[in-house]
Amino acid sequence: MMRWTAAVLGTPAVVCAAMLAGCGGQESKADQEARAAKSGFRPPAVTSRLDYGGEMERRFRALDRDGNDELSQDEWPRQDSRLQLLDRNRDGVITSSEFSEGMLTRFDQMDLNRDGTVTSDEEREYRAARARGTLPGQPQTTPGPLLPGG
Question: Mean pLDDT in the chain?
């Protein structure tokens, strides 16, 4: 009886060990990412308005090197930067509120179905429309910079 019990209880353990042994050769995360990049795979992304706002706040803080809650022209990435379109009062300085409002306006324009999130498909469609000189759902305009930051 003892041999039979050991054989029955030992069988699942042997089967389990054999299954695990066959699973070996796990790919590292770097190898997985390299394989995905080589195949052109890019996972879909979804960004909420709240997450986008937080990301833009961090971007503003990174640009604001002197920490005075304003972006002077010497803090812009380039002198011909589209950031200048955010300067509503044309004083040569972009305040934190001007930056935030401009970036959230951009998010709202990318949110084509108005669900409070922007998917990678919506962003791709928005960028293609902007390159054509129009925005989805709006009449054709003359080519030129339509929105700041994009």
Answer: 79
